[in-house]
Design a protein that fits this description.
By secondary structure, the chain is an alpha+beta fold. Helices cover 21% and strands 41% of the residues. It has two helices and five strands. A five-stranded antiparallel sheet has the order 3-2-1-4-5, with helices on one face.
């Protein structure tokens, strides 16, 4: 049941557009893998904030704010974009 609660929480954050704290755990050729709300999510390089885009692989190991774009429990898929905050200019 706890697993379903994570998905529900992620979907609620997606609906409200509320940023979520995420840990960047790895990089691949298409973007970054992050952990948030107990789920694994994909952050495409095209959705990394401009300020960090030049060295996006350098974000591995850091905590960043993200916004959820897609939450699909059936396909076990979460897609995010880096949230633009005063600390991360566009």
């Amino acid at each position: 049941m706890q697993h379903l609660d994570r998905w529900d929480a992620a979907d609620e954050k997606r609906r409200t557009g509320q940023p979520v704290d995420a840990e960047v755990t790895e990089a691949n050729r298409g973007g970054l893998i992050v952990r948030l709300l107990g789920l694994r999510a994909f952050l495409p390089v095209s959705q990394v904030a401009q300020a960090a885009a030049a060295d996006w692989r350098g974000l591995v190991g850091q905590r960043i704010q993200v916004e959820l774009l897609e939450v699909n429990r059936r396909r076990n898929r979460v897609i995010v974009r880096q949230a633009v905050t005063p600390a991360t200019p566009p």
